[in-house]
Amino acid sequence: MVTLFQIGHMGEHTTQVIQLLINDGQLEFSHGVFGQLDFETVHFTWDSLTWLSVGALLYRFSRGNRWLWVAFAATSLHQVEHFYLFGVYYEDFLFYENGGLAGIMGNGGLIGSPIARPYLHFSYNFLVVLPLVLAFWDQTKRVYDRHPVSPRMVGGCAPVAR
Fold it and tell me: Of 27, 65, 73, 137, which has the fewest CB atoms closer than 10 Å, so is most exposed?
């Protein structure tokens, strides 16, 4: 479920980036499909739940699943960004509105980079989703290898008793 939810979340960020390209980078017209949820509390809550969920998956399935470790590293980096943004949003909203919303690594942020926040968060999410999908694939192969399908099973289903 975590992987599916993150793929959906990636779709939301993809929509936002497409809207930014269509609207010449005007953020006020680029809030994705669920624009009414595009505020810091929702971002912080979503990414916190993702971080905790991937951490729980790591606790349960980490042995030999390197992609899960990569996904956890990426979601941790993203979570640090949202800890900062959430703190600024609630402690100094005026600063947040006047540039603090760039975060840590966004263009004009605390450390900064050439990447504007919407594109940066698209990148963060991509760096979470891709290894999460690969971790899911890797784990599926492990389960299959431990419990191979019987040759008597047809189409992956048990034969029907007659």
Answer: 137
What DSSP character marks residue 28?
A: G
Query: Residues in the chain, how many?
Result: 162
- The answer to whether residues 26 and 149 touch, using CB atoms and an 8 Å cutoff, is no
- Give the predicted TM-score (pTM) of the model: 0.76
What are 115-143's pLDDT values in tens digits?
888 888 889 989 999 999 999 888 887 76
C-alpha–C-alpha distance, residues 98 and 84, integer Å: 15
Other C-beta atoms within 10 Å of 114: how many?
A: 8
Question: For residues 54 and 2, is the Cβ–Cβ distance under 8 A?
Answer: yes
The stretches of the chain forming alpha helices (DSSP H) are 2-22, 40-61, 66-91, 93-97, 117-146
